[in-house]
Amino acid sequence: MEDGPVFFGFKNIFITMFATFFFFKLLIKVFLALLTHFYIVKGNRKEAARIAEEIYGGISDCWADRSPLHEAAAQGRLLVLKTLIEQGVNVNLVTINRVSSLHEACLGGHMACAKVLLENGAHVNGMTVHGATPLFNACCSGSAACVNVLLEFGAKTQPVVQQASPIHEAVKRGHKECMEILLANNVNINQELPQLGTPLYVACTYQKVDCVKKLLELGASVDHGRRLDTPLHAAARKTSVEIVHLLADYGANLKLRNALGKTPLDLAAPGSSVEDALLFHKGPLALSQLCRLCVWKCLGQASHQVIQQLHLPEPLKKFLLYQ
Question: Which protein family is it in (predicted)?
Answer without folding.
Answer: Belongs to the ankyrin SOCS box (ASB) family.
